[in-house]
Each structure stands twice: as structure tokens, then as C-alpha cells.
Amino acid sequence: MSLINGRKLDRVEVTDRGLAYGDGHFTTMKVVDGRIERWEAHLARLQKGCQRLGIVAPDWSQLAASLHDEIAGVALGCAKVMITRGSGGRGYSPAGCHDTRWIVTLSPFPEHYLQWQSEGIEVVECRQRVADQPMLAGIKSLNRLEQVLLRQELNESNAVEGVVLSTRNVLVAGVSANLFWRRDKTVFTPDLSHGGVDGVMRRTVMGMLKEMSIELRTVEAPLESLWHAEEVWMTNALMGVVPVTRIAQQSYPIGAVVRYLQERLLIDV
After folding, report:
1. 115 — phi, psi (to 5°)?
2. pTM for the whole thing?
3. How many CB atoms lie under 10 A from the CB of residue 61?
4. What backbone phi and psi angles, to 5 degrees, belong to 104?
């Protein structure tokens, strides 16, 4: 199922700038019992993305109403909202592009995430590096070619996830998730001011850690920082909190902080 500006369509114009240049952004959301988990946070992300990219804001109330109508009756699934600058002529200039296009799609929930939450996952170090790009730091833009190539690398190695570093060899994230690790009484997560996606679940977990009075540091850290960790986990809006049990030759227990965060997420929606 797909909606384009509230109409049931499954095609966009070939002149759409999201198609031509990745000129837009998106968010992916978990649907449970006909409602979106953390909708307000996802809406805020979409609004911030439009502001950062200078895209004319759509009618948010219309978008929300159409989206919620479509997910009514969905027991468990995924909803994705993409916003593009709309159609434009040849060339990079966005001048004259005022007809913002928003697209809603629904898809089944990846059931394997439930097993990942329970048992944890083994991840690899990705060989490919992502570039620093402060102009887009934090935004989930439609240009995901780095992630496509990283996912291709995972497929070739039969891995389910990977730890990704920047070209400066500092930790950024997973291929499709944000990254956290704990050492002693402090939790660390990569500083995303140079690049990476500031996920809704990342922000949720950061808030929970604050409520737990656990010290949290956003850092620029090398891969070796993970070798001294006592817990490692990854997050996104669909997978929730997933413990990492192995990276290369280093193994990790599924610790108390991970389990507590998972329990909190079951009730704090």
C-alpha cells in the first residue's frame, strides 16, 4: 500500500527530486495495534528535516490523518513516510520547487527482530567507511547509497549487522542502527555532529539513561573502545534495543542495562 499526498498511488513523476537527487528525507515507524509508536517524535523528526533541508512543509495535519487512517486495524507492521522537494527541472537548483511530495508506505514487521532482542546478534566490522558530512549530520536523507553499499558488504559476508566507522576511523553507527556501549558505570554513543543518523530510538534510549541516572557520553572513539566494553547494543525504531553478543573475536554478555531498557520500552510507548 502507498499514498502520495493522500491519494492511493504507487508511482511518482520521473521529475521528482527525491528520485533524481535523493532530495528529501524519511522516517520509519513501528505500528502496533493500529497506532504508531512514538509518533510525536517521528513527526518532530520530519518537521526538523524539512527545516534543515529548506523543504516547504507539507500539511502536517493532513499527512497525520491519512497515515493514521491507513494503519487502523494493523496489528503489527512498519510505516514509512518519505518527503521529497517535489518535481523540478534539470539541474541541482531547488528554485521554484514548492509542491512538496509526501509518500506513505506500509510493510510487514521484520519478525526476526524479536529473536534478535531476546538472543542478541553477532556483528562484523565493515571494511567500507562513511564520509563526514556536517551539512547532513543527523538527518535521515533519501540519499542512502553508503548504506546500500554497506548492506551489500554484509550480504557478501553473511552477516546480519556491522559496526561502521568514518573515514577518520571513529565509530559512527551500525549499518541500519545506532550504537551504544557501556564500560563500568558510563554508557557511550558516537558523536553524530559530523555524520550519521540521529534515530528516534537513539533519542528515546538517551532519555531513559538520563532517568536512570546513568552517565552518558557522546564521543568520537576508535573501534578499539568496544574491546573494553561490558555491554554493547544497537537501536532503531523497529528493532528497539538489540544486544550485541560478538564483534569479531570479542564476545559480550547480555547485560542488565540492555534488559532494563527493553523492559522499559514494553511499557513506555
Report:
1. -70, -40
2. 0.95
3. 8
4. -115, 130
